[in-house]
Design a protein that fits this description.
single chain, mainly alpha, three-stranded mixed sheet, 54% helix
């Protein structure tokens, strides 16, 4: 069916979108260039002077890119479900363009981010607070930060060799996460000036390589490029799969669960109109988090002008956990950057030979190695 002239227009549209969407890497534009300087200044001001971040210049014309997105002749796609997939996805890509175009512009960026990533619901905030009621376990030996970025890079290199796909690794100070997989350049970026514990390395390897990088490469193996760039609303599922790989590999801890809960509260603080220093104060003074963790979570939420995506890790984890617990096929969620609600459509595309089974499978999904009963209880009881 792939060569069928009925789908010629589909492949042309898909190819056009592949060319256009390569320009948009939101996280690349969203990470401030002067994190370390502003962190020093914020700490020196005793957490009272909000940081002022600088960002990369946008390398494309947002207006022209939007115009090209909406000039695609979707009416030429014969199948209604596939047409709707491309319709919804173009709207999401358009939203991402608006996000990139307004990074660092306060409320403008915040409202664009809200449109694409949504906001925590009351249920998400309740789930976060439920997790925070549990007493934190004592830090074990494997939780002590002891490895530098070079040692972390060597670990990720070795972990990556378990998979038959090839990616690059580089170090940077201009990222907000400890490590981050960049979809468009197939690169794992490691935070240069950070120390990593044994548990950090396990979490990041399973999360960034075992899921984020793997779904990129599975997507690239598909006949349609939309699988590698992402279906509309795929972020929640992708965040959930990455966190779920931590659980299945026995690297998820109560401490990490609490971090995901604090991210929800930080995202929620944006909706309440909190400033950077307000959110930091909530985490540092009210919840008694250490200042480094408080800074990191606050930075992730407030970068760009207010980035709500972080709440999705916890709600995504719950959705994927429930899906797995119901005995459903995990492989289909790894076919690319897809969402839970796309399962039937992916099966339809596979039947029409417009999609293939995933080539690579996340190692941690073969067997549940979690040994922490508390986490089992928590995940079962989240709403």
């Amino acid at each position: 069916m792939k060569g069928d002239s009925a789908y010629k227009s589909l492949f042309e549209i898909d190819k056009n979108l592949d060319r256009l969407v390569k320009e948009i890497d939101v996280l690349n534009y969203l990470n401030p260039l002067n994190i370390e300087q502003e962190k020093k200044r914020f700490f020196a001001s005793k957490f009272s002077e909000d940081p002022v971040f600088n960002y990369r210049k946008v390398k494309f014309n947002p207006f022209n890119l939007q115009r090209e997105f909406f000039s695609q002749r979707l009416e030429d796609i014969p199948d209604e479900d596939i047409r709707k997939l491309y319709h919804d996805t173009i709207y999401e890509y358009s939203g991402l363009v608006q996000c990139v175009a307004t990074v660092g512009q306060g409320k403008k960026f915040f409202y664009n981010s809200l449109r694409v990533f949504g906001t925590p619901q009351e249920k998400d905030v309740k789930n976060a607070k439920f997790i925070l009621h549990f007493h934190k376990e004592e830090d074990a030996e494997e939780m002590i930060p002891r490895y530098n970025a070079d040692q972390a890079q060597a670990y990720f290199q070795a972990f990556g060799e378990k998979y038959p796909f090839k990616f690059k690794i580089r170090q940077s100070n201009s990222i907000t996460a400890a490590a981050m997989a960049l979809n468009t350049t197939k690169t794992l970026v490691v935070k240069k000036n950070r120390k990593f514990s044994d548990n950090d390395l396990k979490i990041l390897a399973n999360h960034e390589i075992g899921v984020n990088m793997l779904t990129t490469f599975n997507g690239l193996n598909q006949p349609l490029r939309i699988f590698s760039h992402g279906f509309a609303n795929n972020n929640l599922t992708q965040a959930g799969l990455a966190a779920f790989s931590e659980y299945m590999s026995d690297s998820l801890t109560l401490k990490r669960m609490k971090e995901l809960a604090y991210r929800v509260l930080a995202a929620d603080s944006l909706i309440k109109g909190y400033s950077f220093s307000d959110t930091f104060d909530l985490l540092y003074s009210q919840y008694k988090l250490d200042r480094e963790t408080s800074w990191s979570i606050t930075l992730r939420a407030h970068r760009g002008g207010g980035f709500t995506k972080d709440y999705q890790y916890l709600s995504g984890l719950k959705k994927v956990y429930d899906y797995y617990s119901a005995g459903k096929d995990m492989g289909i969620l790894l076919t690319g950057k897809v969402g839970l609600e796309d399962v039937d459509l992916i099966k339809k595309l596979q039947k029409k030979e417009l999609a293939e089974k995933n080539k690579f499978y996340t190692h941690s999904f073969h067997e549940n190695r979690n040994t922490n009963d508390k986490l089992e209880f928590l995940l079962s009881n989240l709403k």
